[in-house]
Amino acid sequence: MTIGERLKEERERLRLTQPAIASAADTTKQTQHAYETDRTPPKASYLAAIAILGVDVAYVITGERALNTARTPMEVALLENYRHSPAEVQRGVSMLLAQTSGAADSVAGKGKKNRSSEEVKK
Hints:
InterPro entries: Cro/C1-type_HTH (IPR001387), Lambda_DNA-bd_dom_sf (IPR010982). The protein is an all-alpha fold. The protein is built from nine helices and no strands.
């Protein structure tokens, strides 16, 4: 997969149109199209601007997802709130998420679908 293909994949993951991402990055739809079709390599200033939107720029460039990187503004907010919560709140949130995703055993150490809050802290 090329940089342009990954860029398009990230834009679509965030449910952004070419005009929307171009506007946010202070460029044109035509330039966005050129980036996504690998006719023009994206500039560093463009990559910095789209990172603010939640684009995983490391993935776009390397093809490898960044570890422990929140993907959307909502995920960033959730992660920040989680990190600033007391341990008992973090345990409760971890249990709730594991139960709602059908992976309650993983938090109890019986499964491997999701990681417990203690594993995530490591």
